[in-house]
Prior knowledge:
The chain is an alpha/beta fold and 244 residues long. It contains six helices and 16 strands.
Amino acid sequence: xxxxxGVSITWLGHATVLYRSARGKxxxxxxxxxxxxxxPPEAKNLSAVDIMLITHGHxxxxxxxxxxARKFRPEIVCNFEISLHLGKKGIQEKLHGINTGGSVxxxxxxxxxxxxxxxSSIEDGDMILPAGDPCGFVIRFEDGQTVYHxxxxxxxxxxxxxxxxxxxxxxxxxxxxxxxxxxxxxAVAARLIGAxxxxxxxxxxxxxxxxxxxxxxxxxxxQRGIEVLDLKPGETAGAELAWR
Length: 244
């Protein structure tokens, strides 16, 4: 896939997603590759990370944040509390601790933090540390293409306003149930957001996560104009997304 043709999205298993911008910038969200049973071998051998986004502190979203930060020295966007934790781990440069509603622009990519309904804590040895509010991100790439990456969240009605305000072409939504939305709720969310394409994440990693992309498709069967992209771990969707 020629990165200059548009933004590409690679699902690295569970909730870890790698975006590549039209100008070749790599944006990694919620790094958990080591120990992730759904993560393909190539995910453990990334060649570059320019920007890393962290939606919350749970280990299945945060476990590899420090190693990735030390290896690639990316710009990091997270909530203020997680930025303090990373600072104590020696990650202090290129660290952007913001909060819900705030934005930063890095290498021409605008990243806005939006709400998520979940919880957030960090396991540090024998301690469980509070890690601020969970979040999602709206990512507006250099060419104007926009993705709503919801993070771990339950359904909430203000997703409608995220859709109306930011007009994402793609929404990356959790569907696994138990800890996040199930397909039924994700389908309602998809309708409110109004994105043309949905990338399901946070599913199929463990038996307890019962939601599936097929179930989401069935829930959206009566909805024209919304496509569910059923990526397999390690698979990429790119220029064929036909961004609008």
